[in-house]
């Protein structure tokens, strides 16, 4: 019995020694278990028109050149310039590269640090040093390497790596958000520019019509059938329309300069020829499933990854309450005579194996834990805010799409009726059945109605861009098979 007890007692240190490396490698993590905060997504959008179906592009769906749905080659060319020339996008790419580099730097702590050294010393020793009878000369040469490794028992290093990688992912989502914002801003500015072109074309046609009306009024005045008051009224309308052409040209120039800045060029280097084409109808836009929006919006994705990063930093802060355990290992060759690279010149050292723990720090570690928990709460609140903002923006764009479509129908009808009224008033004046005040009133109302119709059409196109931005990118490749209802709702 005594022999068995002795054997058992001798085996315990051996077993403990064999289990120690496994325990050291396994370690533990002080970070709380991470789970994405739950957001109650609505089953459907309140502002989505009846009959709209939900697309499901999610993260893997191609976003692609969504602006091509507007069918404008000039817009396609301008959008392509952003990738290579926009300084805003270049800065976002640089921030993403920096975040990835920081993640790589943090990951390096998972591995041992190995350093190599080589020394060569020529030394003359004093003849009067203690125990010496004469001066001596010798050369000391050494060649070696050292290894240092921190055992990540409490997950400090692993959580630091998780935080850095989550920040890199968030920076990647920020890059996607910047890219989406730039493309959307460019499309919005370009559509405003084309709306101004349509307005300028209307004003030029109006100036021609007003000039003819002025000629008619002057002829009637010369024949004694019209007063000078009628001539002045006709001249006022004509001059005001010409002034409006200059005002629209001023707004167009500023918009063109805005486009130049977005594509990364100087205003003098960019010129976009005007077009006489009217404002096009917006493309059909499918409704995005609310739950999918959380996975699709890059700003929402960035906010979620920053929660993961702050969650990992809690583990880093809590690990500071436990000792750091490091291992040192060194070896090499040293010789003052004879061959350096030989067995007699070899040396090695295992250690030190050191453990360090702060016993008193004035509450610094407790404060660091409280700080990281507060940062986590802030990141979680920012995530919820980003999700709610995303839902609101989609609802706003859907409501605007639906209501502007109805407004366009009525506004176009009003413009048609006002144009007909203007023609009838001018005919009545020509025949002497009405005075010129009736003509002025009708022409002014017709111009206002037609300009309002162009404005509504432009806003519909801009709303299509806003919906693309709200949904987190393009959706053309994710359109459902049956789009008849979507097209009907977009007209």
Care to describe what's here?
It contains 10 helices and 6 strands. It has one domain: Outer membrane efflux proteins (OEP). The protein has 491 residues and is of the alpha+beta class. Helix 4 (156-222) packs antiparallel against helix 5 (228-262) and helix 4 (156-222) packs antiparallel against helix 9. The protein has helices spanning 2-26, 73-85, 87-107, 156-222, 228-262, 290-296, 298-319, 364-430, 436-471, 484-490; strands at residues 54-55, 113-125, 136-151, 287-288, 324-335, 346-356. Strands 2-3-5-6 form a 4-stranded antiparallel beta sheet, with no helix packed on it. Helices cover 61% and strands 11% of the residues. Belongs to the outer membrane factor (OMF) (TC 1.B.17) family. Pfam families: OEP.
List the helices and strands and how they pair.
Elements: H1 2-26, E1 54-55, H2 73-85, H3 87-107, E2 113-125, E3 136-151, H4 156-222, H5 228-262, E4 287-288, H6 290-296, H7 298-319, E5 324-335, E6 346-356, H8 364-430, H9 436-471, H10 484-490
Parallel strand pairs: 1-4
Antiparallel strand pairs: 2-3, 3-5, 5-6
What is the fold-level CATH name, i.e. the topology? Outer membrane efflux proteins (OEP)
Strand order of the largest sheet: 2-3-5-6
CATH architecture: Up-down Bundle
Largest sheet: 4 strands, antiparallel
What fraction of the residues are assigned to beta strands by DSSP? 5-15%
What would CATH call the class?
Answer: Mainly Alpha
Number of domains: 1
Pairing-aware structural class of the strands and helices?
A: alpha+beta
Signal peptide: 1-31
InterPro entries: MdtP/NodT-like, OMP_efflux
Membrane topology: Lipid-anchor
Subcellular location: Cell membrane
